[in-house]
Structures are given as structure tokens and as C-alpha cells.
Amino acid sequence: MARKRVFSGIRPTGQIHLGNYLGAIKSWIELQDRYECIYAIVDYHGMTTPYDPAEMRANVRELLIDYLAAGVDPERSILIVQSALPEHTELAWILGTVTPVSWLERVPTYKEKVEQHPDYVHLGLLSYGVLMAADIVLYKAEVVPVGEDQLPHLELAREIVRRFHHLFGVRIFPEPQALVQEDTARIMSLTEPEKKMSKSLGPRSLIALADPPEEIRDKIMKAVTDTGPAGEEMSPGVANLFHLLKLFGTEEEYAQLRAEYDAGTLRYVNLKRTLADALIRSLEPFRRRRAELENDPAYLERVLREGIRRARVIARQTMEEVKTACGLMLDETSLWQAPVGTAAAGGKEGAGTG
Ligand code: ATP
Ligand code: MG
């Protein structure tokens, strides 16, 4: 039997950080043996927030290197750049015609981005979730490994699929499920620990996987700990540092410092020093592999060319089914005749009426 498909992607908006790794890429790597995995560099999504076109391609290349250095294996997984496959936007348009605007206005990330960039509110930002739904269902992916912030987008994708099926009287797509790692679903920012670590909060707020040791140390030493008066509960900044220490430090290091915290004798500088050392140690192999890949541009090109080629076969098949169901033209070779073996779709009665 064919393996189930996995799809996930990251925006080429800067260096990937601990949140991206722990929330998403770590599961990507684990899933490679059991699923047919497609991992994308989603540059169309990167266009939805202000960006510099001159930097986009370099960012795509850096993100590809990050994927590979982290352990995404092009022998087992398909790696793509979203904009190289026009089927993503083609399907997004079609899905957009079945998605009520009111569903999109409710999406929390949309509201956040509107607040972040009040002068950059556009149709593409509103329809972000439709494009993301298209990315996933284009490959009929069933599992989507992501951080917690993406759950509303996955819920939206399932609603869009159900509505598409209902309106066109077909069943083409599986309903995609998010795969969220409970203990690493949400890593917090170092500078604003009540917000999630994000590329767009700036380099001081995050540890990039590629950060050199002295930078890791500097950022951890300057991380926000207690913001208000000491209370009963551990502050979000300290909790985040302990969380990272649990993931990257040794069991003894964690137990020791945690006991000091409970006894009220912990000096934050010790927590930070231990964490910085642990991170520098853990990220060393990644930095090494990254440096090797930087020197092998021919390999990088081969990986993407092959990935895009393999993805295109799947994408075209899905689009043929979708376009047939919608009464659209496939290409110049089949203008009026419906492809053999397709029942006339049930019609799109009630489309757009909620
Ligand atoms: P941007 O600020 O440009 O949106 P980002 O850091 O939020 O960047 P995305 O490309 O939006 O990164 O997300 C890539 C993946 O990383 C998604 O699956 C997302 O859920 C996950 N992710 C992002 N930030 C975190 C975090 N702080 N903790 C856990 N997972 C995260
Ligand atoms: Mg994001």
C-alpha cells in the first residue's frame, strides 16, 4: 500500500530557530521513514509580510541548507520551493471561491499580523490560510507536523476541504490533521517571553540553529528572566530557559538547577551559563554540516530540481481531478470534452451562500 503523505513548510523569512526546529523540523525528520514526506520552502507565504525581493532567493537557499543540515534527507523526502510549482496558487484560487471571507477574518494569525503591520494589510494576508490549505491538499497530505500556532490554520484547511467536497459533490482530499509535539509545541521569545519565538521578532529574540557560539552565549545571557515582582509562579522567561535546559542539557544539570530554584537559591546567571553551554554543544554538529553544504552548490541545486520534479507529478494529478470536478480546462489538448471516467459533478449549488 502507498505510504500516507506528510506536508509541512517554513517561510524563508530568516534563519531558522529553536522554535522551528523543536516545533516542526524535529518531527519532519522522524516521519521520513514511515511517510512520503514533502517539505517546502514557502516563499509565497514569505511575501505576505514586508520583505526585500533582493534577499528572497538567498533566504530560500539558506533555508534549504538549514533543512538539510538539520537532517531532512532528500533520498527519503521531497524538498520543494513553493513558487516553482504553479499548482499551489492555482489550487488556492479555486479553494478561495469556496471559502467565506468571515472564516478568514477569524484566523488569529491574521489579526496578529494586522496589528504588527497595519500598513501592510492585503488580500494575500487575509487568504494566507487558503494558500496553506492548497499547499497541503495539493499533495493529498494527511499529516502536517507543525507548532501550536498553526492549529487554527489546520482547522481552516479541514473546513475548506469539507466545503469543497460538499459544493462539488466529490471526495478528492483527505482531511489533513496537525501533528503537534506536546512538549515542544511553543518555544517562547528570549526578549518577550510571553510571545512565541518567531523569525519576525528579530534576531535578539531567538537562537538560530546557525548562530555562532559567542552569539548563543550573548543572547542567552541577555534573555529576559523576571519582568515583574517575584510571584508564586515561575515567570515565563525563566520557565522558557528551564524548558530549553530540559531539552538540551543533561538530566543532572536540569535537576540541580531546578532544585536550586525550588530552594530559592538559584542565581539566574548560573542557569544561563549552563544553558548556553548545552546549546553550543548540541548545535555544533548542525553548524558543521551547514558549513559543508555551503560549499556544495551543485548538490543543493540537484536536491531542489529533483524534489520539484517529483512533486510536480503529484500536483498535476491532483489538479486534473480538481479542475475536472470544477468544470475547468486542463490545457489546450482537452478543451470541451470531460476526461473519460469522470462523472459530471453535482454542481455548485448554494456556493457563496455560507
Ligand atoms: P515568521 O515570524 O516569519 O512567521 P516563524 O518563526 O513563525 O517565522 P514560520 O515559518 O511561520 O516561522 O513557521 C514554521 C514552523 O515552525 C511552523 O510549523 C510553526 O508552527 C513552527 N514554529 C514557529 N515558531 C515556533 C515556536 N516558537 N515554537 C514551536 N514551533 C514554532
Ligand atoms: Mg510564523
Automatic annotation (TrEMBL):
UniProt keyword terms in alphabetical order: Aminoacyl-tRNA synthetase, ATP-binding, Cytoplasm, Ligase, Nucleotide-binding, Protein biosynthesis
Predominant location category: cytoplasm
Broad class of enzyme this protein falls into: ligase
Cellular localisation: Cytoplasm
Residues reported to bind L-tryptophan: 135
Gene Ontology CC terms, in alphabetical order: cytoplasm
UniProt motif 'HIGH' region: location: 12-20
EC number in record: 6.1.1.2
Binding site for ATP: 11-13, 19-20, 147-149, 187, 196-200
InterPro entries, sorted: aa-tRNA-synth_I_CS, aa-tRNA-synth_Ic, Rossmann-like_a/b/a_fold, Trp-tRNA-ligase, Trp-tRNA-ligase_bac-type, Trp-tRNA_synthetase
BP GO terms, sorted: tryptophanyl-tRNA aminoacylation
Catalyzed reactions: tRNA(Trp) + L-tryptophan + ATP = L-tryptophyl-tRNA(Trp) + AMP + diphosphate + H(+)
'KMSKS' region (motif): residue ranges: 196-200
Record Gene3D superfamilies: HUPs, Tyrosyl-Transfer RNA Synthetase
Family designation: Belongs to the class-I aminoacyl-tRNA synthetase family.
Stored HAMAP family: Trp_tRNA_synth_B
Function: Catalyzes the attachment of tryptophan to tRNA(Trp).
Quaternary structure annotation from Swiss-Prot or TrEMBL: Homodimer.
PANTHER family for the chain: TRYPTOPHAN--TRNA LIGASE, MITOCHONDRIAL
Protein name, UniProt field: Tryptophan--tRNA ligase
